[in-house]
User: Which sequence fits this backbone?
C-alpha cells in the first residue's frame, strides 16, 4: 500500500483521468479568456455575457441536431455565427454610448445581457437535462491508460491555435495594429484616420464567434446546462485577470492552469466541494503577487 493510500489521499492513478479533463476544460477557459482580453483591449468592455451568448448558441445547435435533422456541421456553424451576430449587434447598439463610460459601467451593461439570455434559456429549455453530441466525444485514443476523446483534443488545439493566430494578427496586420492602438488611446487613434467604429465592430464580431465555439466545446464536455455554461465566464475571467487583461499568451497559460487545478482537486474528497473557489483564489494570489512591483514603484516615487 502506498503512502498516499495509507493517508486516505488519491494515488497517481486516480489523478490521471482528471489531468486530461482539466487540460480540456482549461483549453475552453483559455479560449474564452483570449476572446475577452482582445475585446477589452479594443473597446474597454469586459464582456460578462460571453458565456451566456455561447450557451444560447449551444442550445440552438442542440435543437438543430435533434429536432430538425440538419447535419451537425450546419448546427456548429450556426452556433458560431449566432454568437458573432448577437455580440456584434450588442456592440453596434450599445458600444458607442458605452465608449466614454467607466469600466464598471461597461461590465454591468454586459451583465444585464447575460441575465436576459440566461432567463430565456431557462424558460425555453427547462424541461430536462441535455447533452450536446457532436460525434467528437464518442471516439478517441488511449494515452498511458487514460482515454482521450477528440473533443478534449480539439479544446486544447483550439486554445493554442487561437492564441498563436491572435498574436500574429495583432502584431502583423493593419486591423490588429489598429486594435493595439485603440488599447493605448482611442481618441488619438481616431484622429490618425483609423476607422474606430469598424475596428471595434470587428472585435465584437470575432469575440462573439469565439464565444460560440467555446459554448459548443463546453456543452459537449460537461453537458447542456444554462447556468453552468453561462457562468463559464467566471473561470475565464479569472484567467484574464491573472493576465491582467493584457497578454493573450499569459491568458492561455492561466486558463490551462485554472482548469487543471480545478480538476485535480476533484478526487481529493476533503476539498472537492470547495474546488469551484479555486479560480478566484488563483486570480487573487496572482494579482497580489503581480501588484508587488507597482507597490514598490509607487513607494519609491
Assistant:
Amino acid at each position: 500500500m502506498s503512502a498516499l493510500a495509507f493517508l486516505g489521499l488519491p494515488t497517481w492513478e486516480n489523478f490521471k483521468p482528471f489531468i486530461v479533463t482539466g487540460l480540456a476544460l482549461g483549453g475552453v477557459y483559455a479560449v474564452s479568456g483570449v476572446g475577452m482580453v482582445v475585446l477589452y483591449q479594443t473597446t474597454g468592455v469586459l464582456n460578462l455575457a460571453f458565456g451566456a451568448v455561447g450557451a444560447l448558441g449551444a442550445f440552438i445547435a442542440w435543437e438543430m441536431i435533434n429536432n430538425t435533422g440538419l447535419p451537425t456541421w450546419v448546427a456548429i456553424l450556426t452556433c458560431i455565427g449566432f454568437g458573432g451576430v448577437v455580440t456584434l449587434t450588442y456592440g453596434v447598439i450599445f458600444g458607442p454610448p458605452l465608449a466614454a463610460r467607466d469600466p464598471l459601467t461597461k461590465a454591468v451593461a454586459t451583465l444585464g445581457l447575460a441575465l436576459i439570455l440566461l432567463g430565456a434559456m431557462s424558460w425555453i429549455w427547462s424541461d430536462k437535462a441535455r447533452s450536446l453530441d457532436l460525434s467528437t466525444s464518442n471516439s478517441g485514443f488511449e494515452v498511458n491508460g487514460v482515454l482521450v476523446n477528440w473533443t478534449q483534443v480539439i479544446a486544447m488545439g483550439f486554445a493554442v491555435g487561437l492564441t498563436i493566430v491572435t498574436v500574429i494578427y495583432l502584431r502583423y496586420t493593419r486591423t490588429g495594429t489598429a486594435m493595439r492602438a485603440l488599447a493605448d488611446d482611442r481618441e488619438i487613434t481616431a484622429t490618425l484616420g483609423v476607422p474606430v467604429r469598424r475596428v471595434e465592430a470587428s472585435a465584437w464580431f470575432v469575440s462573439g464567434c469565439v464565444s460560440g465555439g467555446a459554448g459548443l466545446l463546453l456543452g459537449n464536455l460537461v453537458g447542456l446546462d444554462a447556468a453552468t455554461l453561462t457562468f463559464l465566464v467566471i473561470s475565464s475571467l479569472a484567467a484574464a485577470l491573472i493576465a491582467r487583461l493584457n497578454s493573450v499568451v499569459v491568458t492561455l497559460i492561466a486558463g490551462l492552469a485554472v482548469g487543471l487545478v480545478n480538476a485535480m482537486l476533484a478526487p481529493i474528497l476533503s476539498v472537492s466541494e470547495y474546488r469551484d473557489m479555486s479560480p478566484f483564489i488563483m486570480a487573487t494570489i496572482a494579482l497580489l503577487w503581480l501588484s508587488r512591483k507597482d507597490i514598490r514603484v509607487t513607494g519609491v516615487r
